[in-house]
Specification:
This protein has 601 residues and is mainly beta. The chain contains 8 helices and 31 strands. The two termini are 34 Å apart. Bound molecules: MU-OXO-diiron and calcium ion (CA) (3 copies). The site of one calcium ion has 7 residues, from β9 and β25.
Length: 601
């Protein structure tokens, strides 16, 4: 439906913030504060954070590092005064976490304990007040490298995932490299295992190792020195890397529940997964593989959603059909110049098809079993084809999210510096820029029901900074009236259907700090981009949660000060005790990744 309502969250766009600035910048009339920071104690027995006395045992009882996907779900029957926060801990920056010379083995163990997931209860006095986290609350939970995940679906128990430590092939320890995610209609959280290859040493010569970027090099964190499973050349652990690269599902309301990894949704560098219930009742999940020239995927459940039947709904992602996307443009190839200039029909647009990988429990790829298609999904997708050819190589699909207002799906392509380089594919209508530094967003309209195998598409925007001469496109909205935007990554919708975009990489592109942007999707102002906030130096903006009816926005500030060192920090976020200043009690002179809230006040 067209004509969205007006949001209660009104603001005047901020100006872009120079990339050297170490500050959170919010619109006039708004203020910000952390909800929870790296190291904050979660349990009644957790030690307080002491940056000079870190141990792995302490970290395991504290909030971890580098949050990406974040959501806040109200706990029922609490009058809006109690909620549960889910977030992940994607990776660690040991160079700014511990002083130089810290014990190497302990540093590795601290890093491992700072990975994984977290569930934390929040409280507030009333619905006009900011949230605080509750130490020792019953739902608080850390998911660590020894937390067991149940592998579901066709690959569970297969020879491709068995190890000496897990002969069942169904019980996997830990989750690493968790990036974006999604919240399901039944109140669980999905998390994408993304850059899992960076945690393993491997043979590096098999077709699968090569396609997934697994190499024989030592890893940057060197966990292979502490646990043999992180080197898949070790006898009994040949399949260990096959146990990562999945979509994880967590029930944040049950601290005793076993989290799941869903093999039916395929294995690749999962950015995240976002679910919508189709008219037919099947649930559909959209998923990006975040790698240059990799693909966009869609999962359609075999079973149907039943409102209120949590047990049924929590099984839906374990069985279904898997597809990979093929986009076809409708403008002459000669009009796709690689610059981002709009073709003569006035739009980057066309049609598309979902090519089958698994249908009705059977492999759609000749020569590959269902288990092989789901474990080596990239290789299976390379072989998928119709009369027009194979799936479309994308410019790094990050979040892929359907609007619950319109059913249209937004595919965020963050950038692709290699497009058009020697030996690489050049510009296409759906990825229209060579050496795509600033990224773009594709809007998909499924043909009929969300389960359809065909669709139409157009580009919502081709990002950049028009003021610096970049060729950009904002659905026809005047380019001199938008906030400059580069490297879109995570998206969320507000209650009236506006799209909000967080960015990762703007400093190296357009020279501004990353931020959060509101985009109008309908009417005369379609394509209007307004910057809401900017994150501190070196940070990426993640998470976003838009509670526009409460005039509140949440973001995860990931890797602030990442390019600095412990001794010479680039950032003092969020405690802001500058160099030379004497820290007050509880303040820390090092950046701490945190989830923050931005509100009127
Ligand atoms: Fe972790 Fe695709 O960003
Ligand atoms: Ca066109
Ligand atoms: Ca991302
Ligand atoms: Ca990213």
């Amino acid at each position: 439906k067209e004509g969205f309502g007006k949001s209660k969250l009104k603001f005047t766009a901020i100006k872009p913030v120079d990339a050297a600035v170490d500050a959170v910048t919010v619109p006039d009339g708004f203020t910000w504060q952390p909800v929870i920071r790296w190291g904050d104690p979660l349990f009644s027995d957790s030690p307080d954070f002491d940056i000079n006395k870190q141990t792995a045992a302490a970290q395991a009882r504290q909030f971890g590092y580098n949050n990406d996907y974040t959501d806040i779900l109200e706990i029922p029957n609490t009058k809006g005064r109690r909620a549960v926060l889910f977030t992940n801990h994607e990776y660690t920056n040991e160079n700014i976490m511990v002083p130089a010379g810290y014990d190497a083995k302990e540093t590795r163990a601290i890093g491992r304990a700072a990975h994984g997931l977290a569930v934390v209860e929040l409280e507030r006095k009333n619905t006009t007040k900011p949230w605080s986290y509750v130490k020792g609350a019953p739902l608080n939970r850390r998911f660590l490298d020894d937390t067991t995940y149940e592998l579901t679906g066709p690959v569970a128990g297969s020879a491709l995932v068995k190890t000496v430590a897990d002969p069942s092939g169904k019980a996997i320890k830990g989750t690493f490299g968790n990036c974006s995610g999604g919240t399901t209609p039944w109140g669980t959280i999905l998390s994408g295992e993304e850059n899992f290859n960076g945690y393993f040493v491997a043979g590096g010569t098999s077709a699968s190792d090569k396609r997934y970027g697994l190499t024989a090099n030592a890893t940057s964190r060197k966990w292979e020195l502490d646990d043999p499973r992180f080197d898949t050349r070790n006898a009994g652990y040949e399949n260990e890397a096959n146990r990562f690269g999945w979509i994880v599902e967590v029930d944040p309301f049950d601290p005793t529940s076993t989290p799941k990894k869903h093999s039916a949704m395929g294995r690749f560098k999962h950015e995240g997964a976002n679910v919508i219930v189709a008219k037919s009742g099947h649930v559909v999940a959209y998923m990006g593989d975040d790698e240059r020239f990799d693909y966009l995927y869609k999962f359609v459940s075999k079973g149907k959603y039943i409102e209120g039947d949590r047990k049924n709904n929590m099984g839906l992602l374990s069985e279904g059909n898997l597809f990979v996307a093929q986009f076809t443009g409708n403008s002459p190839a000669a009009e796709i110049t690689g610059t981002g200039a709009v073709p003569s029909d006035g739009a980057f647009d066309g049609i598309g098809e979902w090519l089958p990988l698994v249908v009705d429990g059977k492999s759609a790829i000749a020569g590959m079993s269902v288990e092989e298609v789901l474990v080596h999904t990239r290789i299976a997708a390379d072989k998928a084809a119709n009369a027009k050819g194979g799936p479309t190589k994308m410019d790094r699909c990050e979040d892929v999210q359907p609007s619950l207002h319109t059913g249209k799906v937004y595919v965020v392509c963050t950038n692709n510096s290699d497009r058009g380089k020697a030996g690489k594919e050049g510009a296409t209508e759906v990825n229209p820029r060579t050496q795509n530094r600033d990224g773009h967003i594709v809007e998909i309209t499924e043909t009929g029901d969300q389960t359809s195998t065909s669709f139409g598409w157009n580009l919502l925007m081709v990002c950049g900074d028009p003021a610096q001469g970049d060729v950009t496109y904002f659905s026809g909205y005047p380019v001199d009236k938008v906030s400059p935007i580069s490297c879109p990554d995570n998206v969320a919708f507000d209650s009236v259907g506006n799209l909000w975009i967080s960015t990762d990489g703007a400093p190296s592109g357009i020279g501004y700090n990353d931020g959060l942007f509101k985009v109008t999707l309908d009417g005369a102002e379609r394509g209007k981009v307004e910057q809401f906030l900017a994150v501190p130096r070196d940070a990426e903006t993640c998470g976003p949660i838009i509670h526009d009816e409460e005039r509140t926005v949440f973001v995860a500030v990931q890797h602030p000060g990442e390019e600095g060192t412990f001794e010479a920090p680039h950032s003092y976020f969020p405690d802001y005790v500058g160099a030379g200043a004497k820290p007050a009690a509880g303040q820390v002179r090092a950046p701490r990744p945190a989830v923050i809230q931005v509100f009127r006040g």
